[in-house]
Each structure stands twice: as C-alpha cells, then as structure tokens.
Amino acid sequence: MPTKIEKDSVTGRETTGHEWDGIKELNTPLPKWWLYVFYACIAWAIGMFILYPSIPYGTGYFKGVLGYSQRRAVDAAVAEVAAQRQASMDKIAALSFADIRKDPALLEVALTDGRITFATNCQPCHGAGGAGRPGYPALAAGAWIWGGTLEDIQQTITHGIRSADPDARQSAMPRFGADGILKPDQIQAVADFVHAKFYGHPPLAADIAEGQKIFAENCAACHGDAGQGNPQMGAPRLASKVHLYGGSLETIVSQVTNPRMGVMPNWNTRLDPATIKALALYVHSLGGGQ
Ligand code: HEC
Ligand code: HEC
Fold first, then answer.
1. What's the whole-model pTM score?
2. Ligand 1 centre and the CA of 152: distance in Å?
3. Crossing angle of helices 104-121/70-94, nearest 10°?
4. CATH of range 184-257; options 3.90.420.10, 1.10.760.10, 1.10.10.10, 1.10.150.20
C-alpha cells in the first residue's frame, strides 16, 4: 500500500499516511500531561531500582542502596512483639497471683499465654480445656487430688507428681492385691462398697458391711472415712462423680489390686517460672479453681 503523508485540512495536522477506504489516520501527538506522567514513572522506576533490591544476577541480586529486606522487616516486627510479651512476662514473674489478677490487661496476657502453652504441652494428656481422660485428671472439674488453689497448681506444674524432680509430689497407694495384703474376695467386697457408697451405684452384695469394715481398716487413713480424699497425701476424693481411672467396679478392683500411680512430668526444666505462673492462672480459670 503506498503511503502518502499529507496535511489534514480540518485540524492542520499531518496524517500518518495510512488510509483505509478513504478514511485517513491523523498523527495526533500524545497529550503533554500523559507524556510527563509517563516520563515521571520511568524516573521513579529507575529510582526504586537503585534504592531497593532489584536486579538478580547469578547467585545473588543487587541489594539496593537502602539495604532494605522484607525478611529483616518481619524480624524487627517479631522482635518488637517478643519484647512487648517479655515485658508482660517479667511483670507476671515479679507480681503475686493476687496482684496479677488485679490488673485485667496483664491477666489477659497471662491467660492467653497459658492457653497457648496448655494446648501444646498439656492437652495431649489432660484433654482440650482440661476435660481429662482416664488416668489423666480433669483439671476443669474441681475434683483436685493435690489441691486447686493457684499455689497448689503452680507447685504441681513446677515439680510434677512422682516425677524425676526431687521436690515432686509423692504418694503411693499400697498394692493390696499384688502384695497379698487383701485376698481377692476382700478386694471384691471393698470395691463393691466404694462403688456403691461413694460412686453411687447399686451394690452387688446383699450386705456391704464387710466391705465397709475393710475400707475403714485399710483405706480410710488416706481416702477419709467419708471418702472425701486428702490433698495433703494426694489421695483422691472417692465420694465424687469425677474419677481419675473411671467409675466402673472393674477399675476399682484393678486399682486396689495393683495401683497405677500416674506420673505428671515436672515442667521447671522446660518452662520458665513466668510461663508456669501463666499456666496456673489458666488452669485455675478452667472452672475448678479454688
Ligand atoms: C504425660 C502426661 C501429662 C502431661 C503432658 C501433663 N500432665 Fe498433668 N498430670 C498427669 C497425670 C498422670 C496426673 C495425675 C497424677 C496422679 O495420679 O496423681 C497429672 C496431674 C496434674 C495436676 C494435678 C491435678 C489435681 O487434681 O491435683 C495438674 C494441676 C496438672 N497435671 C497440670 C498439668 C499442666 C498444666 C500440664 C502442662 C504443662 C500437664 N499437667 C501436663 C499427666 C500429665
Ligand atoms: C497410703 C494411702 C492410700 C491408701 C491406704 C489407699 N489409697 Fe487409694 N489411692 C491413693 C492414692 C495416692 C491414689 C491416687 C493414685 C494415682 O494418683 O495414680 C489412690 C487412688 C485410688 C482410687 C482411684 C480413684 C479414682 O479417682 O479413680 C481408688 C478407687 C482407691 N484409691 C481405692 C482405695 C481403696 C479401696 C483402698 C483400701 C483398700 C485404698 N484406696 C487405700 C492412696 C491410698
């Protein structure tokens, strides 16, 4: 197609020389404002190229004269949050439980920290929200084996129960069956008594007086005459709807025959004192705190 540049008579501008069916294309220049914005964008891009990390080469990249790095920015933000948390945790470590509870903002930090620590460290044994499971006490139920004040809970978490810690809480139920202290029919009788009198089920035996006698002689010293338990000795409350090992007659017979003596790890080697305090506040808040 032959091109012929000519002047348009209406606008006074030149055409591009392209023509289709008599329609000619005007060579209208770009608007000045658009052109300057375009140039400004180019200048801006070059500036950004120089200031910030940009051109990749071989094994690395041009880091930019500002030395900015997104990773460092994230690290700084994380460090700032950690510093804020550390300030709160230092306060938690220094203050008494009573003072922490007087400061709603600090208590909130403690409970949040406790909830997160509980989910990762304690939940596998004690269940979500401290609901418990056979062999692992329900921490939300208020049926404390070792006492449910903040200090009791802090002590239990710090040193554990029958753990390797020299200050661990210690208690032992005699192995009445395994060591031949009671005969199988006596164990059956005392278990039936506990199951009926304290766990609230119909007795199997016509007369539970025999079981009652065995209980008074062998069990009441630790578990109490009324099965009320003894937090000083770590003897669980038997007169309760919440049981460490379950509520069936078989579990009682099994416990009296060969007690299980569960182990609660000591956490002083794994968690710092402030975190343990936060945990104690959280566990206490689950519903059973005293
Ligand atoms: C390996 C399993 C296990 C883990 C993990 C564990 N516990 Fe325990 N915990 C136990 C057992 C078992 C007992 C009961 C011991 C007994 O028979 O007296 C117990 C008892 C307790 C008690 C005493 C309950 C009472 O009635 O007096 C508290 C409080 C407690 N745990 C808190 C925690 C906290 C908080 C954590 C997390 C830091 C935790 N436990 C992690 C197994 C565990
Ligand atoms: C020297 C103290 C001691 C004596 C005596 C004792 N117990 Fe225990 N008993 C304990 C302790 C401690 C536990 C908790 C075991 C554990 O934490 O694993 C326990 C746990 C139990 C449990 C489990 C409770 C639950 O919540 O599941 C039953 C049932 C029980 N004892 C019944 C008896 C009976 C019946 C006798 C008498 C024949 C007896 N005990 C004598 C200390 C004692």
1. 0.79
2. 12
3. 110
4. 1.10.760.10
Q: What residues have CB less than 8 Å from 26, skipping those under 6 apart?
A: 8, 11, 13, 14, 15, 16
Cα–ligand 2 centroid distance for 236 (angstroms)? 7
pLDDT in tens, 46-104: 999 999 988 888 888 888 888 888 888 899 999 999 998 899 999 999 999 999 999 99
- Domain 73-162+265-285 in this protein, CATH class: mainly alpha
Q: What tens digit of pLDDT does each residue of 189-231 get?
A: 999 999 999 999 999 888 889 999 999 999 999 999 999 999 9
pLDDT tens-place string over residues 156-180: 999 999 999 999 999 999 999 999 9
Q: How many residues does the chain have?
A: 290
Q: 136 CA distance to ligand 1 centroid (A)?
A: 6
Ligand 2 pocket residues where CB is under 6 Å: 171, 173-174, 176, 190, 194, 218-219, 221-223, 234-236, 238, 243-245, 252, 255-256, 259-262
Q: Is the CB of 280 under 6 A from ligand 1?
A: no
Q: How far apart are CA 103 and CA 160, in angstroms?
A: 29
Residues of the chain with CATH 1.10.760.10: 73-162+265-285, 184-257
Spatial neighbors of 16 by CB under 8 A, at least 6 apart, are 3, 5, 24, 25, 26, 27
CA of 134, nearest ligand number: 2
Q: How is the chain split among helix, strand and coil, in percent rounded to 5?
A: 45, 10, 45
Query: 144 C-alpha to center of ligand 2: Å?
Result: 14
Distance 219 CA to ligand 1 centre (A): 24
**Could you tell which of 120, 123, 125 is best to mutate to test the pocket of ligand 1, judged by most ligand atoms within 8 Å of the CB?**
125
